[in-house]
Amino acid sequence: MVVANISKVFPKDTEAPPGGVDDMTKLSYLHEPGVLHNLANRYELNEIYTYTGNILIAINPFQRLPHLAMINEGKSNSILVSGESGAGKTETTKMLMRYLAHLGGRSGVEGRTVEQQVLESNPVLEAFGNAKTVRNNNSSRFGKFVEIQFNKNGRISGAAIRTYLLERSRVCQISDPERNYHCFYLLCAAPPEEREKYKLGNPKSFHYLNQSNCYQLDGVNDAEEYLATRRAMDVVGISEEEQEAIFGVVAAILHLGNIEFAKGEEIDSSVIKDEKSRFHLNMTAELLKCDAKSLENALIKRVMVTPEEVITRTLDPVGAVVSRDALAKTIYSCLFDWLVDKINSSIGQDPNSKQLIGVLDIYGFESFKLNSFEQFCINFTNEKLQQHFNQHVFKMEQEEYTKEEINWSYIEFVDNQDVLDLIEKKPGGIIALLDEACMFPKSTHETFAQKLYQTFKNNKRFIKPKLSRTSFTISHYAGEVFGEVAAIEKKMRWVCGNARMNHIRSAYILGKMQVASIEEKFIEGRLDSLDVLCRPANALVQKLQLQSLMETLNSTEPHYIRCVKPNNVLKPAIFENANIIQQLRCGGVLEAIRISCAGYPTRRTFYEFLLRFGGLQKLWKESKTKVFLRAGQMAELDARRAEVLGNAARTIQRQIRTYIARKEFIAFRQAAIHLQSHCRGVLARKLFELLRREAAALKIQRNFRRYTARKSYLTLYLSAVTLQRGLRAMTARDEFRFRKQTKAAIIIQAQLRRHLAYSYYKRLHKATLASQCGWRARVARRELRKLKMAARETGALKEAKDKLEKRVEELTWRLQFEKRLRTDLEEEKAQEIAKLQDALHAMQIQVEEANARVFKEREAARKAIEEAPPVVKETPLLVQDTEKASLLSERQAAKEAREACKDAEARNSKLSKKLEDAEQKLGQIQESVQRLEEKLSNSESENQRTPENGNVANGEPKVASDMMVAIEKAREPESEEKPQKSLNEKQQENQDLLIKCISQNLGFSGGKPVTACIIYKCLLHWRSFEVERTSVFDRIIQTVASALEVSDNNDVLAYWLSNSSTLLLLLQHTLKASGAASLTPQRRRTASASLFGRMSQGLRASPQSAGLSFLNGRALSRLDDLRQVEAKYPALLFKQQLTAFLEKIYGMIRDNLKKEISPLLGLCIQAPRTSRASLVKGRSQANAVAQQVLIAHWQSIVKSLNNYLMIMKANYVPPFLVCKVFTQIFSFINVQLFNSLLLRRECCSFSNGEYVKAGLAELEQWCYEATEEFSGSAWDELKHIRQAVGFLVIHQKPKKTLNEVTKELCPVLSIQQLYRISTMYWDDKYGTHSVSSDVISSMRIMMTEDSNNAVSSSFLLDDDSSIPFTVDDISKSMQKVEIADIDPPPLIRENSGFGFLLPRSE
């Protein structure tokens, strides 16, 4: 639904042709939307020319133009072609020249037509008069008026080119990314021998060229353009000797710009700075064919001629630079004028010509952010042309009304004479005041600005900005233009005295450049000496040239062509409404429409008007041949006509519908009667025939049913067989076709998704860059404003510059460091994989050795038992002593054997227990292998791998196939019992469960937010950071956004602030941008699959090594927790969105606290005013009660601070963020209290100072109780109000000196702030006085000096609401989060898909 203001809605001409009208005076409704709509319709049909009376509007189609025609009226005419850069003025001018040459039919010298001669001069004029600007790479920086002269027979007899308003200041001063005139760059790209002759080099080495970083144009070869310019000079008749002299002068200007000056020994004197400048001085003198010493004296000295004597005085280095630039501008201006005269003499002029047709190609209205003297002159010229245009349009309207005998005396003429008087009127115009200011050397732009403000304070066309002292705004016909006095006066104040003009005369091309004739134009009756030529030169030259141009235009019949640029991208078929309406407004077309609308804009012939409005009341004015309607009357007549026609149509429709309805009813009734009688007869005949046939059918059916049943059975049997065969074949073909289509669709979808993802990434990348540039510009402007307010001396600017350079170096170092870190991480990753594989192999060997040792120990134990000697029975025998000794030894041996057997049995039991433990570990290993297989399958499903581009393409088909066979064998029993869901469905269910879980408040575990840890572990386990496309990030962001819809619930905000900061910290330590790694995602998947393949192959090869798999799986899981992940685009986008949410939540908490304490701050600053009586009373009890009432507001603020601190502590918000919140809050309190103190005199009292001091003590106590961990530097943010309150309550103020006040008591406060507090202070308690009058006078003097030094005079503080931290600050300030032992919530704890979230102990 579109909602618009009714005053901005205009009627539409419903009878206008779809393709628009060629002359917009034929429109029924002549207004801005109608004009724009008509131009758009014609532009769609490639009709780029449209008339508005005798005004031709040409819209640039950015393609080959059609022919342009003009009526030969047999008298002198002028064609004014205007428009902004890129609108097609040059092409339109060329087409006009071709057409005029075709009408004239006269051949020029050597078979070349006048048109060819004029067009052949364009390369020369473009080389010396065109330059690159912001809007156009080949912008004409001068106005050109081409005169085509005709004899009495109407044949072309000659032509001439007149130039106006050359932009001289571009020779010495350019801005980035513009360029100087083309000829300088062409000469620097000349062949080596010519550059060596002129001692030229790279354009970057010349001062007049290196002020901008643009040296080369896209698609333009300066070397080729130089040769083309030389050829064009040959064509227009410039000899080789003259060409050498011309480019010698160009080279001399470049060398002249590199001459630098240093301060001389005497006061206000200067000398050549160094040998390099001396070299450029000698080269300049050599190229200009003059004496080097004389040239040096002319640059560093100034000669003033008076009636009594000739005074010579030296110039300081600044004056010498101004003198040097003035000489360069004068030389280049004379060179350009000589080139134009040379071209005119080559073309040939007819002094006896009686008629001419002139084509004016001049730049249009200009308005930039910073407008200098050139824009001032250009807009002044356009105001003159606009007045001429308005007078001509008004004259045409007057002639039309006179011809038709219509009274036109009431029509108001739209005149801009007041703007012209403001600029050129003598003696009080801007130009006259500017000339007068330039006459005085000690005049500054501040004094000139003040004179402008005093002179034009009551002029409605002159506007003075509120916050600037050296700028002004002029209200032109096309809009307001902002001008800076310093920029205008700087380009006006260029001096070229007698000595420098003498060097121009002594140059080689003296006779060709005709300097003397140029001087005479300014000396005759206007100037007394050449020394004052330069001061009013710019304004005087512009004014004289403009006067000559207007005299020429007034002597001819004008025709207007307004060239319009339809878009700023310079492409066809793009029509931008806002851009075109602004150009029509600047071109004066809308002014012409307003003049037409002031009278009778709608005109119709008698026949057309009577045919349309013959039956209405007379609301128009008749003339001889037409009917004239005022603005808006056409819409009123259309409304009345529609009302009359509507009433007549409704009457006719009512009668016709009655007749048709009755006729239809009678016809329907007769048809129904005939149809009913016919149907009843048919039904009776059918009933009789049915009864007759029933009897016969009973006889036939008995015998026929048997035959029919048999035949039906056989037919059905054969049909079923045939049908089954056909259906099976069709099913097989459909299945084959479906599989073929599915395969093709998968291929197409893969390519399309890749293309869509790449396109989306490009658009998002471009939008991100644009938003970052905008935000950085905004932050930079804010920082610049702060620096200006804080700076007390010029050293502050240098310090800011050093800080910025240091910041750039730091950012550059960080970028290189991150690149090195990314490379090192990739190498460490490869080394860790190799170490892991080696560890796996070593552990397999250890398990085999352990099994071998167990087997050997069992064998050793068995052999020890077998080899043990049998127990010998003791028999009582009588033996000798020797036999007893042997018996004792045998008993001892048997005892030792029994002990050895017991030891072997103990070792055997220990080994059997170890074997049971190994079998238990084997079961755990099998479970770990299943988990690893499921993890591998999840990774494959996320990356959507197909059998064609799987592991076979990466060189390991056998290992991968073995792994898949093992997985299928392990799952066969389970698949037979219960069919599984697809992996994508399982993953979707896990994501749904995760989103459902995090939408609840899961609380904290060990001071760590459970939600952030679970999200991070799930995303890392699912490998969501490494996939190209996934929806889990968007769903998480949507969940967080839905939770933040209630912006006033601080508990929820603190909860999500803690979770978002923790999750962002984990992502900052884990993610790294993809593209730096050596492996693509598919290769990484292959490497992972090959690792699991080797594990499964090792399990099949040696079952005893199965115990290593579990350890290896735990090692791999631990590696995934610690390694950095190569994040894809969705993961990086998720990180950016999470950063934005973190900043948003932080801002919401901070703003909520500001809203809560803002009313309390107002009460705090107002409290002494309402309870002052109770404080003044002498009764102690009343004072105590009043003081308690007053301090209650401060206690309320402290209570709010405590509530927010408790909320953020309860939600474990990082202390870094808590500290930032309270730092900004205390800064807000400081700004509010301090600004209120400066703006209200009743607050600058002694008692109010004591009250605020007591409140600040409450805040200081709160900072002490909150500890530095959470309050940080918040107390330091109150330095302004603390020092101001300390000044209010201090005693013996009149005895304090200015140094004590500014250095000891209030070092932070500015002079403006101290002056305001000192003048507004009053003691309502003891009646003391403020500081002494001497101190106040000193403050006033310092304030005046600061205002002269352009230091900001604002004494109020600004509140900073920006985000005071970055992601890197968070990652550096917060401690590393351990997520291993986070207990998952009950909702997902029992789900098998989230088994990886369980602690390792479980």
UniProtKB/TrEMBL annotation:
<protein>
    <recommendedName>
        <fullName>Myosin motor domain-containing protein</fullName>
    </recommendedName>
</protein>
<dbReference type="GO" id="GO:0005524">
    <property type="term" value="F:ATP binding"/>
</dbReference>
<keyword id="KW-0547">Nucleotide-binding</keyword>
<feature type="domain" description="Dilute">
    <location>
        <begin position="1034"/>
        <end position="1345"/>
    </location>
</feature>
<dbReference type="Pfam" id="PF01843">
    <property type="entry name" value="DIL"/>
</dbReference>
<dbReference type="InterPro" id="IPR036961">
    <property type="entry name" value="Kinesin_motor_dom_sf"/>
</dbReference>
<dbReference type="GO" id="GO:0000146">
    <property type="term" value="F:microfilament motor activity"/>
</dbReference>
<dbReference type="GO" id="GO:0005737">
    <property type="term" value="C:cytoplasm"/>
</dbReference>
<keyword id="KW-0067">ATP-binding</keyword>
<keyword id="KW-0518">Myosin</keyword>
<dbReference type="InterPro" id="IPR037975">
    <property type="entry name" value="MyosinXI_CBD"/>
</dbReference>
<dbReference type="InterPro" id="IPR027417">
    <property type="entry name" value="P-loop_NTPase"/>
</dbReference>
<feature type="compositionally biased region" description="Basic and acidic residues">
    <location>
        <begin position="932"/>
        <end position="945"/>
    </location>
</feature>
<feature type="domain" description="Myosin motor">
    <location>
        <begin position="19"/>
        <end position="693"/>
    </location>
</feature>
<dbReference type="GO" id="GO:0051015">
    <property type="term" value="F:actin filament binding"/>
</dbReference>
<dbReference type="GO" id="GO:0005516">
    <property type="term" value="F:calmodulin binding"/>
</dbReference>
<dbReference type="GO" id="GO:0016020">
    <property type="term" value="C:membrane"/>
</dbReference>
<comment type="similarity">
    <text>Belongs to the TRAFAC class myosin-kinesin ATPase superfamily. Myosin family. Plant myosin class XI subfamily.</text>
</comment>
<dbReference type="GO" id="GO:0030048">
    <property type="term" value="P:actin filament-based movement"/>
</dbReference>
<dbReference type="Pfam" id="PF00612">
    <property type="entry name" value="IQ"/>
</dbReference>
<dbReference type="InterPro" id="IPR000048">
    <property type="entry name" value="IQ_motif_EF-hand-BS"/>
</dbReference>
<dbReference type="GO" id="GO:0016459">
    <property type="term" value="C:myosin complex"/>
</dbReference>
<dbReference type="InterPro" id="IPR036018">
    <property type="entry name" value="MYSc_Myo11"/>
</dbReference>
<feature type="region of interest" description="Disordered">
    <location>
        <begin position="898"/>
        <end position="919"/>
    </location>
</feature>
<dbReference type="Pfam" id="PF00063">
    <property type="entry name" value="Myosin_head"/>
</dbReference>
<keyword id="KW-0505">Motor protein</keyword>
<keyword id="KW-0112">Calmodulin-binding</keyword>
<dbReference type="GO" id="GO:0007015">
    <property type="term" value="P:actin filament organization"/>
</dbReference>
<dbReference type="InterPro" id="IPR002710">
    <property type="entry name" value="Dilute_dom"/>
</dbReference>
<feature type="region of interest" description="Actin-binding">
    <location>
        <begin position="546"/>
        <end position="568"/>
    </location>
</feature>
<dbReference type="InterPro" id="IPR001609">
    <property type="entry name" value="Myosin_head_motor_dom-like"/>
</dbReference>
<keyword id="KW-0175">Coiled coil</keyword>
<keyword id="KW-0677">Repeat</keyword>
<feature type="binding site">
    <location>
        <begin position="83"/>
        <end position="90"/>
    </location>
    <ligand>
        <name>ATP</name>
    </ligand>
</feature>
<feature type="region of interest" description="Disordered">
    <location>
        <begin position="932"/>
        <end position="959"/>
    </location>
</feature>
<keyword id="KW-0009">Actin-binding</keyword>
